[in-house]
Amino acid sequence: MARLYIKLTILILFSFNSVFAEISYKEILDNPTDLELNLNYAKQQEKAGNFKLTIATLERLNILYPSNSDIKLYLLSILIKMDSKVKVELMIQTMLNDPNTTDETRVLIAELLSNDQIVEQNQKWFSYIDLTYTQTREDNISAITKTKKLLQDDVSIPFPVVDDHLIVDNDKIHTKGSSLTFGKNFDNTSSIYFNFGLDINSQNKKATGDSEIISGSTSYFKVLGNHYISPYVYYSRPNYKRLEDYNTKGVGFNNTYVVNEKNNVNYGISYSNTSYDQTITFDAADDKNFENYSSNIRYNYNFSPTTQLSSKLILNKIDSSKNYDSYDSEGINFSISQIIKYGTLKIQTTYLENTYDAKDTFISSTIDRKDESLVSTISLSGQLNQIVPFAKKMNEDDSIFYSLKFKHSDVSSNILNYDVDRKFLSLGLTKRINLNEIF
Question: pLDDT tens-digit profile of 71-90?
Fold first, then answer.
């Protein structure tokens, strides 16, 4: 059986030229027809012991790519591993009667039938821990304005002088994080996920901004025909150094509708409430409380098994305790994703227009604030082995992932205080520990 699975793996690898990058649950929701992405996700779930989710992914791919015998063969091997006799018989009959089934595939089917070592691994529960370290360099962490001036009472004043302590231009942010994810596969079409995380952020120079962030979330996944539905809830509680603390509670709903092999539409709505802690030091912190109503719709086009083009329309409504912090946001996002030898390369840009409800009279009693922002990012992510070949010695189980990202944020505002240009460069490493393999 081991020799057979090695053959199957080699066959699938060469057939699809797979690049095994870490595939997130959100990526699958957004790209349910992407062959390469979903195949890698199926392998990832198989490795984690989530066989029912592996089967659900492969069955969807088998419907989308009915002439691809490699997908059928991979699905057959998992069905045998699950001891799903009825589905095995149906799959074998379908493949043997298919004129597109090659002689090599028929030989592998015969080996499967002659091998009576059926592995019974029906793990409905799955769990893993992610340990992450990220370093980000920002060239304008204190949001120094482009003109180096501020507006106060309709009068232009100089921006405070850089002192490498309170007002800082460039700085490095170090994030050490850990998260526990566990869930259950109810059947081939539904599952539930729970996540709990802790991030510790520290800065080299700036006196304010260090924080510990506790977070948690729950999401449910369900397939209904061509709809891939996921409602979710989340909670976040940052603890900041020398700044106000707050907590955010939110709920949302996401759905991807598969039109056909090349086209799918993703849309979502969400609501969150952010409440600040009022203390003796920050006696007016609760004046910053706000609610966020968000909606978006995205169109995805699978140009090829390794390339996807996307565009997204964005609508947000922020209701704050202070009217001058409330605003409507409208915008659009474009992105392209390409699986390459070294991982998944993604380039995207987002344009937003924010129109505020009221004037901030402390800054200006005559100007109605309006911002325009253009945020562009380029990222590369995947397994560490893909960019550092000798890392295979310490990463034999392919459980260490990397991420590289450059982001440029250019905000143009009719009020000097918010006219800011910033650049970010991040490098991250994640080690995943599969608890199913330990216990």
Answer: 777 777 777 666 555 566 66
Indicate if 82 and 56 belong to the same structural domain. yes
Q: What is the pLDDT of residues 84-136, one digit of tens each?
A: 555 666 666 566 656 566 666 666 666 555 554 433 344 467 888 999 999 99
pLDDT band at 28 (very low <50, low <70, confident <90, very high): low
Main-chain dihedrals φ then ψ at residue 89, nearest 5 degrees:
-60, -40
**Of the candidates 114, 136, 161, which is a domain's last residue?**
114
In CATH, what number is assigned to the domain containing residue 79? 1.25.40
CA dihedral defined by 333, 339, 341, 346, rounded to 10 degrees? 10
Whether residue 120 lies inside any domain: the answer is no
> Strand, helix or coil at 38?
helix
Paired tokens of 287: 């004046």
Indicate whether 159 and 308 sit together in one domain.
Answer: yes
Number of H helices, E strands in the chain: 9, 16
Half-sphere exposure of 224 (CA within 13 A, CB side): 7
pTM: 0.72
Within 10 angstroms of residue 19's Cβ, the number of other Cβ atoms is: 19
How many structural domains is the chain composed of?
Answer: 2
